[in-house]
Structure prediction request, 469 residues.
Amino acid sequence: MILELADSVRTGVLIIAFLVSVYYWKNYKNSAQKYFPFLMLFATIVEVTGSVRLYYEKETSNFLYNVYLIISFVFLLIWFITILKRKIIPKILLFVFLAATVFSVFTESATGDLYFYMLMTGSVFILAGAFLFFKQLIETDAAVYFIKNQQFWIMSGLLVFYIGFLPFYLLVRNLDLHDYRIGLVIPLLNILLYGCFIIGFKCPSK
Amino acid sequence: MSQQINLVFFILFGIAILLVATMIGLFLVFSRKKNQIIEAGLKKELELKIHQYEVELKALRSQMNPHFVHNSLNAIQYYIQRNEVEISENYLVKFSKLIRLFFEYSGKQNITIQQEIELLQNYLYLEKLRFEAKLNYEFHIDERLDIECQQIPSMLLQPIVENAVNHGIFHKEEEGNISVSFVYLDHQSFVVTIEDDGIGMTRSKAILKNNSNGHQHRSSNVIRDRIELLNQSKSWEITFDTHEKMPEQGSGTTITISFSQKN
Prediction:
């Protein structure tokens, strides 16, 4: 019951984040974040489809989630290339991520579970990109207005999500746990992620 | 079973601590940086303010040119000795009024164009008493200018006019003319032109070199410093241009200053 409630809240916050991203799009249509509503729409479709399938067909949509994860990681790594001044590192991260994805596709089952190597490299690289972004931001005078910085909030959301997700996923994968409370972690992390996105979309782009 | 509950609790608690620590750490680092930047900005602003006061003080000193005070008092003495009481009295009244205006306006950032004109007229009137027929001056004020409301940085023009008198007209053998024009551009912008038909900058500099009097050089620097500071303050956008007439056009110097007040 509580898990279903957490999932519903997560989906609700995601839909709100998508609507906010569309509503405030005119404020950031000329910035590097202009394609984020498409990512939010895609995330909403995947999330709703996955929930519906789980509810009616009692099946997890791991293939769909794998496709979503690959696309969202590529999207975010390209976004890093756009916003970071030193382009070479995010370009290398993107290249290594694509290589890890190809490796996962050929060595792991697409429907069995989430692609492990793809997910691990993607998560670590998002954290690395967030670290580079915060380092870049703190070295400029723009750090004064970090509370109103759209990129800061999006990066904070990503940082919080993946810093929680990464150790959690590794622990749960290697331990045989049967406690419903474990299932609360991902929805709660998602709520934090999309919450930060909502704040970010409401900020001016510059 | 109990072990598994402990493990779940440990994982959930660990993740929660990690998230809270990340968020607090991130905000602490950025807040500290924000304070550092603000502090540095304030320090810079303070230094700029101190520099501004120094320049203003220098400007005041250069306006209160001891030569001018000395010459004026000499002229008053000259008229008293000749028993020309009315002229000397008139001279003294104008001189004291000018000194009062100097002190009053030097403490203000901006004054109205009318006040600036009044100051320049007072100054030129005194100089005319000293130079007599050798110095003529005229003012041209664009009717579209609202001189009672439109502002101008205080006493920026006086040292320029003083240079025109002392270095343009003073060394000229024939009579010299000074023309001061205020031309309207828009409701926040205008141009001031100070034109003299004196000996020109090149000859004046050559004479100054021989006399080793650095006042003109000093006051020119003060003017440029003040304009730079006013531009940095973002409340004014001022351009300063000096033009010396070509020999075939006669002699003389034209100084053009455009003022644009920012909101």
Observations:
- The longest helix of chain A spans residues 150-174.
- Residues 2-202 of chain A form one domain.
